Amino acid sequence: MSANKPFKFSLSLSQWLAVVVIPVGIVAAAYLFWHETKTSVSIPVPKQDLPAYHSIRPGDLVQKIYSTRNLPSNTFRKPQEIIGRYALTQIPKQKPLTEKQLSSKVDPVLLANTVAVGILATPATTLGGSLQVGDIADIMLVPATTKSGFSSPTLFPNILILDVKAASQANSSSASVIVIALPLKRQQEFISKSFGATLLLTRKL
Length: 205
Description:
Strands 3-6-5-4-7 form a 5-stranded antiparallel sheet. A two-stranded antiparallel ribbon has the order 1-2. The protein is built from 3 helices and 7 strands; from the N terminus they run H-E-E-H-E-E-E-E-H-E. It starts with 12 loop residues before the first helix and ends with a strand. The protein is an alpha+beta fold.
């Protein structure tokens, strides 16, 4: 009676690779999932596209998970940092909000029931280039003198400067523009009184 031969357990090269690679792959995937979770953050983003000069309210925002490595360094991460500001440009939905896209916080009263109006900018209306976004200014429309005499100027007080857009250097025909938040109830008055009038802009020091 012959002795039993010892059982030899052998694996092919491909089987050995599978034995080694599969566990390593599982560990690597688990690590990447853990690392992604640890380096992700929930931030407020626009629920829908926001037009320029839109005043941002709580209902405009939703939370979205982003990897911190994909966020610009100046991204807003808390809703309270955003609410009370307005968009300086059109903002796409579901994208992080940065300081460059939004104004400083302003008194909501200055934006309530207003309409954005553009005014041709001159050295006088920009106060020699010192006029800034977020300034509060008084605007006066001075009618042209006629044969019938001098008409009283029309005052629009406490007007928020939404934006000051300089002319593009690439386009010499473009004009510099001041964008103001004009009370909606005085929109027609502003239009009718602007024709032929001189616009004066003043700001408290």
